[in-house]
């Protein structure tokens, strides 16, 4: 499978089966991470981690503190797409594969300045 990123008329395909999405909460300025799988049914969120809580980012009761991160597993059906909005208040979304992270603008090109980016599973 591949992950397709669509933003401002640009489409980029990345051959991968899983990725981590990182960002900073715009109000709390706290790190957030989500682990996703790419499959034939779409994108599946499998785990999340945050460095703190507050302002709409409270972890669920099953979250556990591990190495400074509140972590928990997620069981949800696959999503057909994930829409990432850029508020301009928290820095860029970052996508990591195998421990290597890049901003969306680095992946999509320097001219990337769109308010939204859509992620979805696609054929390689």
Give the overall silhouette. globular
What value does the Rg take, in angstroms? 14 Å
Order of helices and strands: EEEEEEEEEEHE
Query: Mean pLDDT across all residues, rounded?
Result: 86
Instruction: Classify the beta-strand content into a percent band.
Output: over 45%
Strand order of the largest sheet: 6-7-5-4-3-9-10
* Low-pLDDT ranges: none
How many strand elements?
11
Helical residue percent band: under 10%
The separation of the N and C termini measures 6 Å
Q: What's the helix count?
A: 1
Sheet having the most strands: 7 strands, antiparallel
Structural class of the helices, strands and pairings?
A: mainly beta
Summarize the helices and strands and which ones pair or pack:
Elements: E1 2-7, E2 10-15, E3 18-24, E4 31-39, E5 42-50, E6 64-66, E7 69-73, E8 82-85, E9 94-97, E10 100-103, H1 104-108, E11 116-122
Antiparallel strand pairs: 1-2, 1-11, 3-4, 3-9, 4-5, 5-7, 6-7, 8-11, 9-10
Structure description:
This protein has one helix at 104-108, and strands at residues 2-7, 10-15, 18-24, 31-39, 42-50, 64-66, 69-73, 82-85, 94-97, 100-103, 116-122. The chain has a 7-stranded antiparallel sheet. Strands 2-1-11-8 form a 4-stranded antiparallel sheet. It is 4% helix and 52% strand. With 124 residues, it is mainly beta. The mean pLDDT is 86. A hairpin with a 2-residue loop joins strand 4 and strand 5.
